[in-house]
Amino acid sequence: MQNFYKGKKVFITGHTGFKGSWLCAVMLMSGAEVKGYSLEPNTKPALFNLLNLKDKMQSVFGDILDENKLTAEMTSFKPDIVFHLAAQPLVRLSYKEPVLTLKTNVIGSANVFEAVRKTPSVKVILNVTSDKCYENRETNTPYKETDPMGGFDPYSASKGMAELLANCYRRSFFNPEDYGKTHCVALASCRAGNVIGGGDYALDRIVPDCARALSQNKEIVLRNPYATRPWQHVLEPLFGYMLVAKKAYADVKFAQGWNFGPNPADVRTVEDLVKKFITVWGCGKYRTEGGKHPHEAKLLNLDITKAAKELNWHPVYAFDKAVEQTALWYKHFYDGADIAEFTLKQIKEYTENYGKLNKETD
Ligand SMILES: NC(=O)c1ccc[n+]([C@@H]2O[C@H](COP(=O)([O-])OP(=O)(O)OC[C@H]3O[C@@H](n4cnc5c(N)ncnc54)[C@H](O)[C@@H]3O)[C@@H](O)[C@H]2O)c1
Predict the structure, then answer these.
(1) Which residues form the domain of 213?
(2) pLDDT at 278 over 70
(3) Does the chain have fewer CB atoms within 10 Å around its N or its C terminus?
(4) How far is CA 96 from CA 100, 153, 155, 293, 298, in A?
(5) In the prediction, which pLDDT does 301 show?
(6) CB-based contacts of 181, cutoff 8 Å, min separation 6
(7) Count of domains in the chain?
(8) Whose CA is closest to atom 31 on ligand 1?
(9) Is 174 a domain residue?
């Protein structure tokens, strides 16, 4: 897969964020020419800065709601592939800022798709949404790609809408049946689970909450200890996105919706994650905070059969390993290690394991 990306021009929205920074690092390691378009990093610290990404790639700070600027930056770069990750990704913030969340995640995505329509070089657009795009039935049955979209909170609804929008663009403008006649774009859309890994500093996410509390010898405060989530290491969905983009580049039949989540045994509770994190860290305590919190999904689970069968994609890290890699990253960071080097080491280790497990079929 890394050979495929060598020399490719890749445009990434959301490159200053948690997943975007990891994706840029992987792309740069593969020898891709990378340009990012996002707002400035909004956390301190930010993985984007820790990895010195602005010195290693083209980086533009801009709003995806600024359609003209976005289009100009994309058309001038002439990318082969676009990864669209920019979003307002936080459930609790979406209750405070519903309109901003909807504008960014829905209208912003429409602007990215429109920019692609005006950029003839683009062959693949990979749209990133979430496990939360599905209508949540609060049952243990995992969601399949064909399940209805929905969303209780504004974030989840915005991701359901972004999926409907991707489907609309795939039918109206990038229809696989018209490929090579009226357009040359494959639009795929990927729904990942709850992503964990080093370098996430967002508010109200459990892993950054753990790292912040433990580094200050404070108790970790849990809101929903028994909520289950499809936890996965950040490199899992990123390699899934890269695989889909590679396949869709060669064959438009891969321009579809795809789930990337962990194996069923690795869908675990928030409390399981916190206990494992503390074990790797070496010490620490947690407590549950009572009181009324905004509604958040209790049960979330993705069916990954389609990716396994049709892409031959399989999760590389089980739950314990994913949490271990994550906690070790933060421990190294707070111990003052060279975190850019440690991040690259984790990417290399993952890549080796990915290569052993995932035998690509072309
Ligand atoms: N982290 C997870 O657990 C998770 C799970 C499933 C899906 N996702 C999705 O993955 C993507 C990346 O998430 P993340 O965790 O890296 O989030 P993040 O908050 O770390 O990064 C978000 C990125 O989007 C950019 N952005 C936000 N609003 C923008 C705007 N108006 N214009 C331009 N850029 C803007 C930010 O600058 C940042 O680069 C999002 O689409 C998110 O919904 C994340």
Answers:
(1) 2-291+299-357
(2) yes
(3) C
(4) 9, 11, 11, 13, 20
(5) 82
(6) none
(7) 1
(8) 63
(9) yes
Q: What pLDDT, on the 0 to 100 scale, is given for residue 314?
A: 95
CA 337 – ligand 1 centroid, Å: 26
- The arithmetic mean of pLDDT across residues 330-358, rounded, is 95
pTM: 0.96
Residue nearest ligand 1's atom 21 by CA: 17
**Nearest CA owner, ligand 1 atom 24:** 86
In a domain, 203, yes or no: yes
Residue 362 lies in a domain: no
What's the pLDDT tens digit per position in 140-150? 789 999 999 99
The rounded distance, in Å, linking the Cα atoms of 347 and 26 is 7
Q: Which residues contact 171 (CB under 8 A, 6 or more apart)?
A: none
Q: Which two tokens stand for residue 341?
A: 């080097």
The residue nearest atom 1 of ligand 1, judged by CA position, is 195
Mutation probe of ligand 1 site: the residue of 12, 21, 38, 63 with most atoms within 8 A of C-beta:
38
Token duo for residue 205: 């996410």
For the residues 111-131, what does the mean pLDDT come to? Answer: 97
In a 13 Å sphere around the CA of 150, the CA atoms on its Cβ side amount to 11
